[in-house]
Structures are given as structure tokens and as C-alpha cells.
Amino acid sequence: MDAILESAKSWLTDFFDPSVKKEIQYLIENDTDELQDRFYKNMEFGTGGMRGVMGVGTNRINKYTLGKSTQGLSNYLKKTYGDSGIKVVIAYDCRHNSDTLARTVAEVFAANGIQVFLFSALRTTPELSFAVRYLGCHAGVVLTASHNPPEYNGYKVYWTDGGQIVPPQDGEIIAEINALSFEDVNFKADENLIELIDTKVDEAFIEASVANGNFNAAGKDDFKIVFTALHGTSITAIPEVLERSGYKNVTIIEEQAKPDGDFPTVESPNPEEPEALSMAIKKAEQIQADMVVGTDPDSDRLGIAVRNLDGEIELLNGNQTMVLMTKFLLEKQKEKGFNGNEFVATTIVSTPMLEKMATAYGVEYKTALTGFKWIGKMIKDFPQQQFVGGGEESFGYMVGDFVRDKDAVTSTLLACEIAADAKAKGSSFYKDLIDCYVDYGFYKEKLVSLTKKGMDGAAEIKQMMVDFKENPVKEIDGSKVIIVDDYNTSTSKNLVTGEVSEIDIPKSNVLIYTTEDGTRMAARPSGTEPKIKFYFSINAALDKAENFKKVNQQLDTKIGRILSEFNLG
């Protein structure tokens, strides 16, 4: 507690605003628990950048923590590219303080002699990724906390290629940040170096989204879409992209169209949660729409709901949409002719079904750690290869490489193209998915997240991972574990042969168990939230589409047994 108190008292100098000093003094005198939570650690970069609760303190998102990160990034950019000619672009989402924090970040860059392009109003994260390369910038920053609760905000850094920072840049930037004190931050901006941007970049991004996501599908005139922005940034792009691509029957949920950091109509602005799309699904039932699409606040994730075999609107998971999107893109590439250098990509906790599909098409399949930055990195690491598409289980997908991060704008258009085309051919998005199960195996996934907040929660999550390593899982639902992949030690052990092989991707605190029947369980602490996540994947053969409901029920029952086995039901 002495170190925490010392850290807090360092914020009582004249460098900090009077209101900040007043709040710190109050916490010192009246609320040691809150003081401890705010100062027991510094904000750190995780899989999605720096994300946390807004407020005063080293473990909070505020002017000073973002200022320090920006000063460190400025120093690193100058070391890398020299003292002149450096350009960065900044975007922000709908969250409270995002606009003012974005302005603060711009001012710190400008105070360090760096040219800043700052969006004049909120924009999507994929547009920020696009803008880095479009404007010839050396880096980009977006102020967003993705789908986290309203009290959160965050700071994601993009590099020259338009992708999120990855090794070695991330570690080197963090070292620069950690070498600074808050008093080293230069907030005195050269306003001449800050340029507001908007419609020119918007137009280029929308044109690129249409070019990459529009496949001239049949049946657009007869295809009804319900779209919700969930109070976020996608309202600035998706309606226009759909209109330009020929979709005339688009119903926007007006109650959720206005950007609002309180997200007043939902418990969570996360399209992974069925509740988030309930208002849109209700509207779809009223007007007999074919598809519902909802996006998270910064518009990099999308949730899709379509009509199932019984005609009911059903929310699909990220694995299901990823599988069908990839299948569609591979089919289109097949029609043009494969060049032999194509690849698709996903993450280590996403469905194994994608590998089966890639193999069937003769296309290379690559896997990466959780976090879309690793998929973006593949495009940079393998410039001689063509990235077709790829995604992750957490509702993110990327079409081609014009954006280097998950992109709900173009992915929304792609999903509509698939569904409209299927309907015109007498099928549906859902029926086409079942056909994939017949062709590549019926894979079904389940994610369970446990929230453990604060310092005690972080310690509990750490101990849970230790327990898994010291007391490894022996079997899952009666099937023996035969492979243990420990990404923290980069080792894969075959328990049948005793062979240990190296995992050739960066280290990460992830454990994956695979059993004889192909059941898989992964345990992983979240890099952006106070959670530990468990990913389950099971599979069965589906001989024909007519048996879908029967096999689906069998798999549901199996998942129920497994969750009970791990006390997660």
C-alpha cells in the first residue's frame, strides 16, 4: 500500500490540474479501496491496445495516461523516422470524452512537431485503419473501448501498414512510454500542425468498401435488411455502403441510430449478446425482414441474425458467419481462378472448421493468436501471398487487405451479398451454412467468460491458469486429452507419443486441450477486460442437411455435459 500511496501523491504536484489534485486528495483521505484500484498498476497494452475505465489515476484512462502514451509514441516515431515529416491520423468513437481525449492526443503529437490529421467527428475504426495508408501516415490512433461498458474508453495504435502495432514495435513503444514520467509529456501544441479531415477520406473509404464487398449479387430488390448501429459509429458508413451497392430495403433502428456513449437502449453494446440485437430482431419479425445486422460502437465487430429452418430469426455466432463469408470469398476466387498464393486466416481459439474448408479448396490456412492485429501482421509478413479473407470467433471479419483490421462495414455488405444471392437461388444464409456442415463437418462452439474485477480478480485469474498447468485436464466428456498446446511455453505435447514440438507463433497465456474425438477446450485470460475466457469446440459428421436438427440437438446436449463437467453451466 505504501507504493500505491506514493504513486497517488505524485499526482499532487502543480503539473496536474487542480480538479485532479482535489480528487486524489479526497481518495487518500476517504477511500483507500478506490485509491488502490486506481493506482495499483499502470495502464498496459493488451491484445486490443490500451483499454480501461475512465477517471483519475495510473490505472485509468485520462488526459495524463493517454498523454504519456502519446509522448512515448512520439519519441518512438522520431527515433524511427527522424525529426521531420512524420504524419499521424486520429479517429474516435461515440464514447464519453472520446472527442476531448482525441484532441488531447492530437495536441501532444503536434507539440512534438508531428503533423496530425484529426477526424472532425466520430468515425469507424476500419476507416481509421484505411486512412493510415490512404493519407500516407506513419501511424494512427483511434479512441475507442470497442464493446466495453459505458465507463470505459481506450487507445489503439496503428502502424504504417494500417495494422495494429505488433512485435517488435509494441514492446519498443511500451519501453519508451515506461521511460517517461508524466511531467515529460508536452501538451503545448503547435495548432498549425493539426488538420481536420472528413468527407474526402470518407468518400475514398466508402468507395473501397463497396469495391471489396459488392459482388453484384442477385435478388437485392427482394432482400430486406434491418440494421442497428447500437448508438455507435457505423451509422456514418454502413447505410451509405449498402445504398451504393443496390440495397433499397434497409430499415434502420432509429432509436439506436444516434451516437450515444450511454448506450441507453441496451445492457451492453456488444453484438455477441443476443439482447443487444433484440430491438432489431423485433422489427425484423414485424416487417418480415431476411436479415438483421448490428455493429459494436467502433464498427469493427458485427452480429448477424438470419431466418433459420423454422423461419425464425436466429443470431449466428462469429464462427458461423466467418465460415460462410470465407466459403463465399473462396468460391468467388475459384471462379476467377486460383493463383496458388492465396491464404485465409483465423485465430487459435476459433473454429477448426475453417482449416477443413481451406484444405478442400487447396488454399493455405494460417492461424494466429487471439486479437486481429495478428491477422493483419500476416499480410505484412507474407507480401508475396494474397489474403482472401479471415476472421475470429469474436464477431470480427476482414475482406481482402485494403483495411488491416476487422471491419464491420465491408463485412456487413459481404453478409448481405451472400444472403441475397442465396435467397435468389432458392436457398438462404442458414441453409448454405448447413451445407458447409455437410461438406466439412458439423463444428459447434461455445464461449464462457468469467468476470473477475480489480486487483484480487486479476490474482484469481492468474491462479486459475496456474492450476490448469499444474493439474492438467485429463479428459473431456469421457474423451481422453491427447494434445496439450501451451502457448506460454510455445510447446505442443502429444500425450500418446510423448512427442513435444514447438509452436511457431509468439508466446501468449493460452492453454488448449484436444481430445481423441476432436473436442477442444481453450483457456485464456482476456487482454482487454477483467475476464478469463473458456472456448469449447465440438464436432460431429452430418451426412445430409435433413439430419441437421437431430445432430444439432446432440451437439447441444454434449456442450451442456461439458459445461457441467467444468462447473461452467
UniProtKB/TrEMBL annotation:
<feature type="domain" description="Alpha-D-phosphohexomutase alpha/beta/alpha">
    <location>
        <begin position="317"/>
        <end position="436"/>
    </location>
</feature>
<feature type="domain" description="Alpha-D-phosphohexomutase alpha/beta/alpha">
    <location>
        <begin position="204"/>
        <end position="305"/>
    </location>
</feature>
<dbReference type="GO" id="GO:0008973">
    <property type="term" value="F:phosphopentomutase activity"/>
</dbReference>
<keyword id="KW-0479">Metal-binding</keyword>
<comment type="similarity">
    <text>Belongs to the phosphohexose mutase family.</text>
</comment>
<dbReference type="GO" id="GO:0006166">
    <property type="term" value="P:purine ribonucleoside salvage"/>
</dbReference>
<dbReference type="InterPro" id="IPR005841">
    <property type="entry name" value="Alpha-D-phosphohexomutase_SF"/>
</dbReference>
<dbReference type="InterPro" id="IPR016066">
    <property type="entry name" value="A-D-PHexomutase_CS"/>
</dbReference>
<dbReference type="GO" id="GO:0000287">
    <property type="term" value="F:magnesium ion binding"/>
</dbReference>
<dbReference type="InterPro" id="IPR005845">
    <property type="entry name" value="A-D-PHexomutase_a/b/a-II"/>
</dbReference>
<dbReference type="InterPro" id="IPR005846">
    <property type="entry name" value="A-D-PHexomutase_a/b/a-III"/>
</dbReference>
<dbReference type="Pfam" id="PF02879">
    <property type="entry name" value="PGM_PMM_II"/>
</dbReference>
<protein>
    <submittedName>
        <fullName>Phospho-sugar mutase</fullName>
    </submittedName>
</protein>
<keyword id="KW-0460">Magnesium</keyword>
<feature type="domain" description="Alpha-D-phosphohexomutase alpha/beta/alpha">
    <location>
        <begin position="43"/>
        <end position="182"/>
    </location>
</feature>
<dbReference type="GO" id="GO:0005975">
    <property type="term" value="P:carbohydrate metabolic process"/>
</dbReference>
<dbReference type="InterPro" id="IPR016055">
    <property type="entry name" value="A-D-PHexomutase_a/b/a-I/II/III"/>
</dbReference>
<dbReference type="InterPro" id="IPR036900">
    <property type="entry name" value="A-D-PHexomutase_C_sf"/>
</dbReference>
<keyword id="KW-0597">Phosphoprotein</keyword>
<dbReference type="Pfam" id="PF02880">
    <property type="entry name" value="PGM_PMM_III"/>
</dbReference>
<keyword id="KW-0413">Isomerase</keyword>
<dbReference type="Pfam" id="PF02878">
    <property type="entry name" value="PGM_PMM_I"/>
</dbReference>
<dbReference type="InterPro" id="IPR005844">
    <property type="entry name" value="A-D-PHexomutase_a/b/a-I"/>
</dbReference>
